[in-house]
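Severity: low
Component: inverse-folding endpoint
Summary: output formatting inconsistent between runs
Steps to reproduce: submit the following structure tokens with default settings.
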């Protein structure tokens, strides 16, 4: 029994942000029914290579991208452009607690599957719309992808070098939006169950989430009126908060207060830096960051990462190796925390996936069903929830509704 057992979600979304939100709900115990296009399904199934291989080593045609955000769901194929398909979705929505969709603003209205239409059928429904720019405003009709929102939303203004803005390598705005959507859905469910008895419409925009993610970077400008510089491999936890090259790799070190800075300087054999009046207080280290970072670089480049980590750990200075992907999962702490899990895939056999990081003492996330085959659960869901018999389902398949 998961924390969200008894909650049923109708996932009309595709690609990344909204499917991630639905996967999070599935991990927590909700029943998630994913509606996909007959024949092709969620277009992210084709976002490869790499593609998952079956037990014989042949490609299944399912991209790793799809596998990343669709585990634990039931796949049902329905053509939303058909009248009968729309009726099926309306029937399912009547029996669901949540609908998730990420079509362009207003696109589902022509099918009678928009928030107002479905909530009229089921007032308890929490309907979450995820779009690039939101349901209103001058850009509401525009398309967009993660990189666009990193650029427009200011994320790139914080990343990269002084003369070169740079996006985060992964689709960070999509990931943040998916997490934010999950929070919003849980808040709306609590309000429904504890206050109003009715659901509501959640309007979530990737651009809004990108702007909100600026956090203290934006607050620095709001307070000072000065545009913060891009920090390259640096962070914002004081100075130093930085990646430094060592003789065999890189290390990230954060000395967030005077005590840690003094301990850092002693550990690397440079106690004079801590006594330097330019660097002996936090504000001074920020103002004089470049000469300080240059002095640290010169020292840290002389020894391997492991040697520095041993000294810094002993001095209680926060530090970590800059890991590539294979090293991430070899890290003893990551292994101890179980951040890789296995699931049995119908075509490929055992596949490895990222674990959910949430640790709940009473309702732990322990069940990780593999992402579904296209339409794998169509018969089960339609017969169980809509009481359709096999002949009716076969007839809908023949007409390409399913």
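Observed output (run 2 of 3):
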């Amino acid at each position: 029994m998961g924390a969200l057992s008894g909650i049923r979600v109708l996932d009309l979304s595709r690609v990344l942000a909204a499917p991630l939100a639905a996967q999070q709900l599935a991990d927590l115990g909700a029943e998630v029914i994913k509606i996909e296009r007959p024949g092709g399904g969620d277009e992210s199934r084709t976002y490869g290579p790499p593609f998952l291989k079956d037990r014989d080593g042949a490609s299944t045609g399912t991209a790793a991208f799809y596998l990343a955000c669709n585990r634990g769901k039931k796949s049902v194929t329905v053509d939303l452009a058909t009248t009968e398909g729309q009726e099926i979705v309306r029937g399912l929505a009547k029996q669901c607690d949540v609908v998730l969709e990420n079509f362009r603003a207003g696109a589902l209205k022509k099918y009678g599957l928009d928030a107002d239409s479905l909530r009229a059928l089921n007032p308890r429904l929490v309907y979450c719309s995820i779009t690039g720019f939101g349901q209103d405003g001058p850009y509401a009709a525009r398309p967009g992808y993660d990189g666009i929102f990193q650029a427009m939303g200011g994320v790139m203004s914080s990343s990269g070098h002084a003369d070169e803005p740079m996006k985060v390598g992964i689709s960070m705005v999509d990931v943040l939006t998916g997490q934010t959507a999950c929070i919003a859905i849980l808040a709306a469910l609590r309000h429904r169950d504890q206050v109003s008895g009715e659901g509501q419409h959640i309007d979530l925009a990737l651009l809004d989430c990108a702007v909100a993610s600026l956090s203290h970077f934006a607050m620095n400008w709001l307070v000072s009126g000065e545009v913060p510089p891009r920090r390259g491999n640096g962070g914002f936890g004081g100075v130093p908060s930085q990646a430094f090259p060592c003789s065999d790799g890189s290390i990230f070190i954060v000395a967030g207060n005077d005590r840690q800075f003094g301990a850092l300087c002693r550990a690397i054999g440079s106690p004079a830096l801590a006594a330097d009046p330019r660097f002996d207080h936090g504000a001074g280290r920020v103002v004089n960051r470049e000469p300080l970072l240059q002095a640290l670089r010169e020292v840290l480049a002389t020894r391997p990462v492991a040697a520095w980590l041993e000294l810094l750990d002993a001095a209680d200075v926060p530090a970590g190796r800059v890991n590539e992907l294979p090293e991430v999962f070899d890290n003893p702490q990551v292994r101890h925390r179980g951040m890789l899990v296995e699931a049995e895939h119908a075509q490929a056999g055992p596949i490895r996936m990222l674990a959910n990081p949430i640790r709940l003492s009473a309702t732990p996330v322990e069940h990780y069903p593999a992402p579904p085959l296209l339409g794998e659960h169509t018969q089960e869901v339609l017969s169980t929830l809509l009481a359709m018999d096999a002949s009716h389902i076969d007839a809908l398949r023949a007409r390409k509704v399913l």
